[in-house]
Amino acid sequence: MDEMPYSVGEGPATRVSLSLPEGTADAIRRRVGKREFSAFITAAVERELRGQILDEYLADYERRKGPVSDQERERARRVFDEVFAEEGQWPATS
Description:
Layout: H1 22-32, H2 37-65, H3 70-87
């Protein structure tokens, strides 16, 4: 696997092609305006990536240590979000 030169949220902006249903695109434009469209999509994608990374960590933990209760899973999510907000850096991705 190629090593990424930038971590999630880092590096210069790059253009990508993105297809969305027109209704979804219109809803985003109405909510944030045309100028903030890309920032909105970026924030949504980064939230999704952060959730997937946490899910991978929890799955690895469960393979090694056993099941995690719903309460423990929610606490892990809160701690993960708090640490992410304080650190301002992304955890290592697989």
